[in-house]
What we know:
The complex is a heterodimer. By secondary structure, chain A is an alpha/beta fold. Chain A has eight helices and ten strands. Chain A has a domain at 1-74 and 181-228: P-loop containing nucleotide triphosphate hydrolases (Rossmann fold). In chain A, the strands form two sheets. A six-stranded mixed beta sheet of chain A has the order 6-7-8-3-9-10, with helices on both faces. In chain B, helix 1 (8-42) crosses helix 13 (309-340) and helix 1 packs across helix 15. The two termini of chain B are 49 Å apart.
Amino acid sequence: MLEVRDVDVTIDGVRILEDVDLTVHNGEIVGILGPSGSGKSTLLRAIAGIIEPTSGSILWDGEDVTRVPTHLRQFGLMFQGFALFPHLTVGENIGFGLQGKEAGATVDEALDWVGMTGFAERKIDDLSGGERQRVALARTLAPEPRLVMLDEPLGALDRHLRERLVGETRELLRQRGATAIVVTHDRDEAAEMSDRLALMREGHIVQTGTVSEMLTDPADDWVTSFLG
Amino acid sequence: MPTRRIRWGWVAVAALPALFLTYFFAYPLGRILSLGLSEMSIGSTGLQSRLVSVGWFTLWQATLSTVLTFIFAAPMTWAVGRYEFRGRKLAMALVTVPFVLPTVVVGTAFVALGWRESIGAILAAHVFFNVAVVVRTVGSQWRRLDPDLLNAAATLGASPLEVMRRVTLPLLRPSLAAAASIVFLFTFTSFGVILILGGFTFATLEVEIYRQAIVLFDLPLAAALAVIQLVGVSLALYLYSRYQERHSASWELASEDAVPRPAGRARIGVYGSIIGTLAVLAIPLAVLLTRSLGSFDDLFAADLIVGSPVEAIRNSLLTAVAATAIALVIGIMAATFVSHRSGTLSRWFDTTLMLPLGTSAVAIGLGFIVALDWPVDLRASLALVPIAHALVAIPFVVRIVLPTMRSIDPDLRHAAATLGAKPISVWRRVDLPLVSRAALVAAGFSVVISLGEFGATTFVARPNTATIPTLIFRLLSRPGPASFGTAMALSIVLAALTAAVILWVDRFRVGDIGSF
């Protein structure tokens, strides 16, 4: 279980996150929804340990991990621009976080999950946008992180492709029983992929719950207009 | 059918640079080749015995210098590559100071440290000179790596050390290869530093060419060594360009805005690396400056044995003015031709203009004394020194002026023509004013090159027309603290002149023009 408690992030004098509280239960998929610039990506980076919170703490199963370096947290993050290593093949990218003898087998398995069997030797340069998305997802899931975070996983793709991949991505997370956070600025995408939503605006979490819960009992007018 | 009209105007524009380069560059190289190859075909034993020891030393000292330069440059490269911080631009400017200093100044500074005739002194001077190449080349690519690639590696469980080994270094490979090639080439063809700090105990190919030609007057043997040197350098350049073609950086570069500021321990590391590196680099110059302080009066005493410092300063300034004038006229004419004409001839010309860059200054000097006795004997002419300097400077002038010339909108010229301007007045009233800034920068570069030029000058300068670098070398070759003091004071004068010109040029610098 992930607990974010009172997290503040200030960069170069600008307060990007203010008193953020968020809980993600085991096996739950939480969608973070908000306009661009609301601090969604910063929150994911703070949870991953890429950005250090100015104050507040991040806990996993009750243990404070706020000062634990990124590479020891076992929190997977799929980056908005995918951040695929251009000097490595598809297989080497997916195998980056794996160790030992079974790495090869796991890579092949991960390629199967995302429907890209046989792509292991391909270069990143030769992939289409949709293929890159799948490779990035497979790379994030392959080491079996205890928390999966997806930052605008479908953001860069055209609408047709998004509609298809929304379902596939959700199924993949479900099948694996992943504890996950999905960041998006698209309401339908958020609703379809997650069990529960957290609505963000200007560095705050305004309200959490399902879309219908929030529409029935909105925290303020902005929630109604943003969801409506 | 329209007849192909020969444009005599363009022939004239191309002819002067073409003749100049043919007579002062291609023809001397040809004479070196024929002299060197006939010496080789005799199978001279002198050549074989010298070649083995000299060639081996040249190769291993260059390799070791390159490795040591990378080790010394690593902390500062990391700091400027990975982080944005206050004073970074100043630190970059300061680390570049050794690189723009004339080689004789660097040599004198290490002599002032008391490190004469040792391999340690040579290696240290090479590192001192080349740190900037690594810091600037690798640092600038590092700053443009997408930081999310490094973050992604960390989220996948890679420790900072592993991120460096598995992501950062492989992605930096193009700039690492470029920096290594440049440093290797500079140290492989190193002349002034080795002549001053190695004496005759340690000789590279360059120094041995000088020794055979000037001290022992065995021109055929010197020519044979020069041929081997030219083949070696060409081969290295060819292999490097092949490598770059195959491994060209195909990945996208991020903008520099994403470079983070260091926090916590990283902050200490960054400032520690910067201050440490710059402090070590400052030592030779600080020692040179303090030890020279008492000797500035000696500059005005006419030293009858090796020449007077005041005269050398005057000679250097006059030479710099003449060399700059020649380089600007030839370089701008050549650039005008290349930028206005497309086609095979123009491209071929463009490449040819770069050749003097890949040729060592020593080979240019040797070429002059081997070849310029025909059709009239020019070898004693006063004009040879500025001509040699101009030859070294022309590639820089072309590289600086050409991009600006190419960027001029052709419609500006068309507009001038429709307003009734003749081609020559279009050039004078449109092209020339627009390239004047670049031409000033090119002029500054030419002055700096001429002031510090040592390799070619040692071959062509007469005893009574010493320039500052050649007089410094003569003073260093004489025993006694008085001449050494004068050499140090003169080095400071040369360094100050160079710095003044560079500061002046820097005001006109636009973007990265003229970076190596």
